[in-house]
Amino acid sequence: MSETKNTKSQIRLPIILALAISAGIWIGATFAEPKGNQNDLRAALYKLQEIMTYVNRDYVDSVNSNELIEYGINKMLEHLDPHTSYIPAKDASIAQSQLDGEFDGIGVEFGIIRDTIYVVAPLTGGPSEALGIQSGDQIIKVDGENMAGVGVTNRDVFEKLRGPKGSVVVVDMKRKNQKDLIEYKITRDKIPQYSINASYMVNDEIGYIKVTRFAATTYDEFKESVADLKSKGMEKLVIDLQGNPGGYMGAAINMADELLGGKALIVSQEGKVDQYNQKAFAFKPGLFEEGPVIVLVNEGSASASEILAGAIQDNDRGLIVGRRSFGKGLVQMPIDLSDGAELRLTIARYYTPSGRSIQKPYDADYEAYERDWVDRYEHGEFFSADSIKFNDSLKYETVKGRTVYGGGGIMPDYFVPLDTTMSSAYVSRLFNSDSNREFVLDYVNENKSKFENMTLEQYYTDFTVSDAMLNELVEYGKKNKVEFDAADFNKSKDYLKILVKAHLGRQLYDDSAFYKVVNDINEVYLQAIKLFDEAEKIALATDLHEEEEE
Questions:
Q1: Is 314 a catalytic residue?
Q2: CATH for the 102-192 domain, from 2.20.28.160, 3.60.140.10, 1.20.120.790, 2.30.42.10
Q3: What is the pLDDT of residues 242-270, one digit of tens each?
Q4: Where does the record place the PDZ domain (predicted)?
């Protein structure tokens, strides 16, 4: 990973500004900006150069020119829109790896508990698993450098453990009940990241797929999941996009194409530059064009999630269930900068097939934009669909004549209020501390024999979290200074048992186990699997305009 080097030299500043001017001229030429605009840009950049030259030379204190430039870039971009962003070189590779679908590393899921790096689980097929690294192992040293008790951060871990495939890193581990550190020489390799975290059969007919983001591999993962579920008898499909913040637009388009027949419009986008004005249509035979589909969304479903949900809704292909989605209808283009940093520049707005822009309003008040979901909560929108008011000027129609609205997110066809009856402040504090992670790691290590021959289905059906286990978790909480609250504990006891079972399932099996268990208290999911008759009615309905004419 490349680092941005700090310098106080006057030599570097003109080079940076020259590159900026060159880039500005190139952008102007490529996008055929009017000559007046190019002149304005040159004048603005010259002004910046003048100011920075004086600051760097004459300001009373020493300054870091690069830090000032990066601060200025961020403040400048805040005046554009909420999603245009600048990612410094030191963060760019980590940010990109979240979308690439793989990275080079040692292959562990880790957590930082009380300033110590714990191995949550070695990743299947990775080099750490092959060497016998275990859940609960503590990473004490990396290449001889102490990593325990020194204020280590997630970025520190990424920088130390990730590296080119084939390179070697020496990691000293502390294992429970062993006095001496264990030294591992780990050869880094390609580590896949999965964006479909769960795929399973709910019953003999219904398949469930949880999509957590839209990355480079999401479409291929989706096809594999659909094919697998169909081989198990799937006739109806639930696609869970709750909390999915989006990602690659192309992944959402390709997934929609597997569900939509004919030449249905999936999404269109429009920008200032003609090359960004595009429309995407279904064009190939899909894996699941006939069976009923339900898509789950909530206030955390954004961007590419809304493209997929909007395509399904506007084409009357299935039912959207949950709460109003985030409302991000702006398209970003990633631009690699010369020093390894990245600019994610908004270059277009996208529109659902009915013509809706679902971008929620924004202005210069970024805090208000980010606080929108809090305002929705306080306004009562999470609990009652009646609290949501739509502007009639933003009324649109689906292919078959159903009314839908633009102006901020995808409103579901079937609204499910947020259920807060089981949760409590105490449970939130318990799970926001390190208590649950410590308890799960220790419980699994101490009870391995109990689960050796237990299948996931047996675990889901037969295993229960006992009161004794909850009491033990409470003690872990006290060690982490989470004060016990008896009233909250009793109120949330059943809820807490499901959460503990879900996290244990993830540690013992995989993410499918987590979602299979936790969906038992997911009200949106529970309502959705009862609504397939409604989903079929939408897909099979006659065009409403034809009915009116008859």
A1: yes
A2: 2.30.42.10
A3: 999 998 899 999 999 999 998 999 999 99
A4: 91-176
